[in-house]
Amino acid sequence: MSRRAAPFQLALINHKGGTGKTTLAVNLAAALARRGPTVLVDLDPQGSALQWAAQSGAAGLPMAVYGAEAAQMLADESQPSPHYVVWDCPPALQQDGLQALLGRVDRVLVPVLPSALDLWASWHLVRLLEQAGAGRSAWRAAFVLNQAEPDRAWSQAMNEAVAEFGLELLQSVVRRRAIYRSAALQGQTVHTLGRQAAAARAEIEAVLEEILK
Ligand SMILES: Nc1ncnc2c1ncn2[C@@H]1O[C@H](COP(=O)(O)OP(=O)(O)O)[C@@H](O)[C@H]1O
Ligand SMILES: [Mg+2]
């Protein structure tokens, strides 16, 4: 029997592209890395998170970033286990790959844009998440609103639309901010971009606190 403590694992999933999976995966993994050794796994053949890490140059990112081969590495009982693993998923994750991933993670975060069309596109995924979570008391899956605008009426409408899905919506939202795009361009995260990223850093920390609760 292995004595390795199992890592806490979080997956960012949405079958739609462009909802912020990679942006949130990288920034949340960097925030987790301040708490303990963290591995970010880039499952997307497009390799955006790996490219992000490559942009970081000699300074690097505070967590290790691997491609799909990490799954095997993480299973190697002779290696020390990280405390946290974050999975950045491609939009076209195949059914069996998705099922296997859902079976191993503790939390799933589904980033959605503030658009009804985007939300409706995640209907099928929500049903899969319900099945995956059945009977697992420590499991949680939730939507997180990304690229939110500071518009109260619209937020309220989105909240009501999300409620129909029966999946939790995190209280914390991630606003639309140019700093997220420049962080990727510079191979940085909101935790290393100083005062200009303070608001973004605070919202990433708030999202993380809710996930770890
Ligand atoms: N909160 C945000 N504010 C501004 N731009 C964002 C935000 N989240 C994501 N983006 C930008 O939106 C695009 C899609 O995000 P990305 O993380 O690549 O989505 P996905 O991984 O789901 O395809 C990228 O150009 C990214 O920089
Ligand atoms: Mg991506």
Automatic annotation (TrEMBL):
Domain CobQ/CobB/MinD/ParA nucleotide binding: 11-189
UniProt xrefs under SUPFAM superfamilies: P-loop containing nucleoside triphosphate hydrolases
Gene3D superfamilies noted in UniProt: P-loop containing nucleotide triphosphate hydrolases
Residue ranges that the Swiss-Prot or TrEMBL entry lists as coiled coil: none
Protein name per Swiss-Prot or TrEMBL: ATPase involved in chromosome partitioning
Originating organism: Serpentinimonas maccroryi
